[in-house]
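Quick board copy: two proteins, each given as sequence then tokens.
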Amino acid sequence: MSGRTRDLPSGSVDILLLKALSWGPRHGFGIARWLEERSDGALGLDDAALYQGLHRVERRGWVSAEWGPSENNRRAKFYRLTPAGRKQLRAEATAWRAWVAALGKVLDARTAEG
């Protein structure tokens, strides 16, 4: 996919994966495509970051995986959000929204000069 992974804030890959999977089961390429489409091309994960992230959230029990046929009838591993993953997504989304709001306040602060 894209080489833009290095531009993502630290810790953001997991929440992006969980959010993509909250819309339903997807294989790796489908997740990457969903993220790029929803962000109008601003967010992209290179293959290494994508699959390392998927393996990490699977180890943590936030997603489960099973093999099945893709849209073009090739064998693909499909990932599905677990109940623990939904809970984690809610917690992380709350934390990220608070962080973004705080960052916005700092960036919108007026300087002494006006």
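And the next:
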Amino acid sequence: MNAINEVVILGANGVMGGAAAAVFAAAGYHVTMLARNLEKAAQGLQAAQSAARAEAISERITLGTYDRDMIQAVGRHSLIFEALAEDLNLKREFFKRIDGPRHPLAVVATNSSGLSIAALAEGMSDSLRRNFVGIHFYNPPHIIVGTELIPHPEMDATLLDALRHTLAKRLGRKVIVTKDRPAFVGNRIGFRVMNEAAQLAEDHGVAFIDYLIGPQTGRAMAPLQTIDLVGWDVHQAIVENVYRNCPQDEACERFRLPAYLVEGIAQGRLGDKTPDKGGFYRRAGGRVVEVLDPRSGGYQPFIPPRPLDFVERMKSFNRVGRYDDAIKLLATAEDPYADLARRVILGYVSYALNRVGDVAESGADVDTIMSYGFNWAPPCVLVDLIGARATADLLNRYGLAVPQVVEHAARNNAKVFSGGVLEYGRTFVG
């Protein structure tokens, strides 16, 4: 990819198209943004300029349409970055269209957040399959640098290494290589936690779950607020993909979409993208005014939950940089709701680190994508803050699988992660 200085973006006006164009153009690539018509391509350019906060970025960007410009654009030695809607058939239709005219050395990348890389390229030419890869940027990519690289099984290892090096060095990405599994690493782990929160909201209420599993537990945003941000439809697509295709997963039931979300989506309730209909919250003037009652499907005035002592103490620890004390308090607090919070956070640790070997290459890779992709406290760091032995004991108490990396650290009285608490606090809680 070092020899590539041109990027062709399919889906210029999509959620990811413009922001991705900004990332590539800022790194010095010439970018051709393609859409169904020039008006939509221009919308993508505006999104790129907004992401880059610079109109001058247009000097490295050319606009075009699929019918007029695609064959010529993909015929050059370039990176073809597909940023279309998350629809397998739609993506495959475009890959078929470019398979013949593309330059034989052109790399074809999909920005899919979890579709099968092998299935997307099935039936395509040998040349395309050998040069086919998932490059999963997290949204917005000009801010979130975590990136998953998912190679087609036929991709040459040398090309994969070159892609990884270029993404890291030229584009400043924090890159992990993952196996071709549903939702890959980050979304597989993150949406499991968020969907569990959605399930718990049926019994405990939306506002309370977001309060209990809020930023004090090591995340930039509370889980149900996050689902509203990414969109209920996107959440549905990701969790149903895992639920449908991973029936042997130890947490398969955590991916079962609650019925009230299914009903809400059918009614056009998608979260922040449908402000009038709302999501878990409805807002006016940028502030929350109503909160969803999952049982009735209606909305009620938002009233902050009654404060819990251990939650407020965790928040106070975080405010003064005592992140280790906050997590240790979570691990030891004697409160029925602390018990519920521990189940969720330890479920995150167990599930995340049990993906090593299954989807991720190492615990360090899991930490990288959960921190730089989701802005969540890395699971290995949480283990070290609690202590490996104490973590293993808690996992056993709640009937959660103890990952091998935790077992090994507990046996040897060792740490799992070589980084420090300061980085955890600065990046994920502060």
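Board note added afterward: The first helix runs from residue 17 to 26.
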